[in-house]
Amino acid sequence: MSDSGILTGEYFINGDEACAEGAIAAGCRFFAGYPITPATEIAERMARRLPQVQGICIQMEDEIASMAAILGASWGGTKSMTATSGPGFSLMMENIGLGMMTETPCVIVNIMRGGPSTGLPTLVGQADVMQARWGSHGDYEVIALSPSSPQEMFNLTIEAFNLSEIYRLPVLILGDELVGHMSEKVIIPPSDQIHQVSRVRPSQSPDGYLPFMAGDNLVPPMACAGEGYHVHVTGLTHDEQGYPQTTAQVHERLVRRLADKIRHNTSKIIQVEEFETANSEVMVVAYGCTSRTAREAVQILRSEGKKVGLLRLITLWPFPEERIRQVAQGIKAFIVPEINYGQIAYEVERCSQGRAETVLLPLMGGAIHTPENIMEAVKEYLP
Amino acid sequence: MKIRYQPIVPFDQEGFNRLKDEQHGLHPDDQYLKPGRIPHIWCPGCGLGVVLNTYINALKMTGIPIDRSVVVSGIGCTGRVAGYLNMDTYHTTHGRAIPFATGLSLTRPDLSVTVFSGDGDLFAIGGNHFIHAARRNVNLKVICVNNFNYGMTGGQVAPTTPVSARTTTTPYGNSEASFNLPYLAHASGAVYVARWTTFHARQLVNAIAETFSIDGFTFIEVIAPCPVGYGRPNKIGSGLDEMIYYKENSIVQNGADPRNVDIALKGKIVVGKFSEEKRPTFLGEYEEKILKKFRRTET
To answer: Which domain holds residue B128?
Structure first.
């Protein structure tokens, strides 16, 4: 282990473990969680690993407390994370909203299983995509990343921390049971090759400091506890001083800025992997474990000469509207396999604005699509 | 779609400066209050001003600098305490002040973390967090302002409302048993348990100051008047009447068995320091039993 505590090397580990390693590599030093299948391995790995880097791992009394604790730790100046699955994700929603309103950097991992309710604890699902986007009350913009391999669980966890620090908000990782539990080779690079970003701190003195006054990038510098800035942090609508205000004007200004700091930067945030997209007449749009099946289907179809490609969504939110809109102009149809009853498919349909047809391939959970499922759907358009 | 936005009204820096310059600094305690935040939102006769004042006096007495202390609150009238104090303050979600403060306290053991919240916040919606933080002995100074009802929402029944008391959601009198908070805190593992009323301002200052030097989860219950939400429907009268009631009906009994300090409607109120004990803290044990194993010795 290097001085930074990063386990540089090649490993055969599962996605949950890779996620924990990514967090440590990103500089996370506080984890609060509650056991839940299929995300428990993250908490277990953090409990073993965090003390080795002088970090703290605490098992809280529930997911509500876990989410609250990581917000508190973040205001203490420590990068923090929690990990859960559907039922726990539901419980976290109110405090995710607090994190959005108070602009608190942190990372929440949801290893999705079949829902609703207790559903399929041990089996795969992808049905929390819209909950991730709209789950807490009120208007806000989220960033949600969708890893499709253990290596990406590692990489995107670092990315999630960096985004949360840059834009000052809780960032979501929407993994799924399959990616969380599958074991593959994961390469952990040397510490000097890991890009770590930390929140911008105020450069001015506490005198006259406005904790929620942002510059052109719409992200205010963050003064953490005990630094002498005397910041009031509240989930109430607040002005640039951080003081509660109950006026429509202040609310408009605050909520618009919270949304715009993401909306104005979508081109920097969004990542889409393009696979065989050139000259495609049909485009498969997939994410997470489903994108692995989709890739197989596209490969087989391409070998048969079919003009089909794959847009693999690495960023689910903000949704890659621009790219979908562009692609829609030149193709016959989007094929959207999802392990839910249609969530991202609605976004695809919305963005294609009727220029291309959208075909949803739903699966309620507990299993993944077969390449044949996808190939059959494509062949309806490319016989 | 096309979007036509509402105009943005910019932050009124001048107005804020005026508020800060003209009204802040006149009172000697203003250094403890955030500039431009007074007047507060509490009703006439409310006990929260007294509690805020005693906290400030405890800081003065102990000499803890405002840069070294933070306050975390939940939601409700007491939840608003945080917003008036000129230090790092966190007004969190309903019931979740303690777990938020847990994350803060564990990552910043150099700071004194006080949780200020009401009886509903700490013991109804937040009850689970309270007992677990006390069990773990997280280093938190918890001050619960108990006014026997939900004041912010207009006087509903709380887990502390005595049997037979009237609130807007118990119009025929409360039929539920109430919590005895010192007993609950003590049984959950709090290392210091006391109760005072807002009439006992000096004892309260001493108690709060005393907890600052204790490493671990401390609990002070402050009985406070809520003339609007609780006093009026129960014919206790104004805030001043409630203070007279505290004066005439409080029994100071340091070391009282917490099992015997229940509060009945219009009954006696046993006050005092009920218990203090030493017990390893969460962070102390984590440090000693876990972190130390992986700390490299200086060469």
So the answer is: 42-294
> Tell me, what DSSP letter sits at residue A49?
H
Closest CA to B289 of A56, A72, A79: A56
H helix intervals, chain A: 15-26, 40-49, 63-75, 86-102, 129-134, 150-167, 177-181, 248-263, 266-269, 289-303, 321-328, 344-352, 371-379
Q: Kindly state whether A65 is in contact with chain B, defined as any CB-CB distance less than 8 angstroms.
A: yes
Check: complex ipTM more than 0.95: yes
**B23/chain A closest Cα distance in angstroms:** 16
| Nearest-CB residue to B100 (from A56, A69, A78) | A69
Give me the average pLDDT of each 10-residue run along chain A (383 residues): 82 98 98 98 98 97 98 98 98 98 98 97 98 98 98 98 98 98 98 97 94 97 97 98 96 98 98 97 98 98 98 98 97 98 98 97 98 98 97
Number of domains in chain B: 1
Q: How confident is the model at residue B297 (pLDDT cuts 50, 70, 90)?
A: low
Is B105 in contact with A244 (Cβ distance < 8 A)? no
Looking at the domain assignment, is residue B150 inside a domain? Answer: yes
Given an 8 Å threshold on Cβ–Cβ distance, is A30 in contact with B16?
no
Question: What are the b/e assignments for B88-107, b being 16+ CB within 10 Å?
Answer: bbbbbbbbbbbbbbbbbbbb
Q: Do residue B34 and residue A232 have CB atoms under 8 angstroms apart?
A: yes
Q: Which amino acid is at A231?
A: V
DSSP string, B10-77: PP-HHHHHHHHHHHSSSSGGGGGB-TT--S-SPPTT-SHHHHHHHHHHHHHHHT--GGGEEEEE-SST
CATH 3.40.50.970 fits A9-193, yes or no: yes
Six-digit token string for A328: 């829609």
Check residue A2 and give its pLDDT. Answer: 57
- For residues B118-140, average pLDDT: 98
Per the CB < 8 Å rule, is A51 touching B293?
A: yes
Out of B10, B82, B295, closest to residue A232 by CB:
B82
Output DSSP code: residue A353.
T
CB contact under 8 A, A234 and B293: no
Contact flag A65-B104 (C-beta cutoff 8 Å): no
* pLDDT value of residue B23: 80
Is-contact B122 B98, C-beta < 8 A? Answer: yes
* CATH assignment at residue B137: 3.40.50.970
pLDDT reported for residue B16:
87
Query: Where along chain A do its domains lie?
Result: 9-193, 274-379
Chain A residues inside the 8 Å CB shell of B10: 253
Cα A182 from Cα A368, distance rounded (Å): 13
Chain B residue with CA closest to A71: the answer is B100
Quick one: fold of A274-379? Rossmann fold (3.40.50)
Please report the residues numbered 132 through 191 in chain A whose beta carbons come closer than 8 angstroms to any beta carbon of chain B. Answer: none
The Cα A224–Cα A205 span in angstroms is: 14
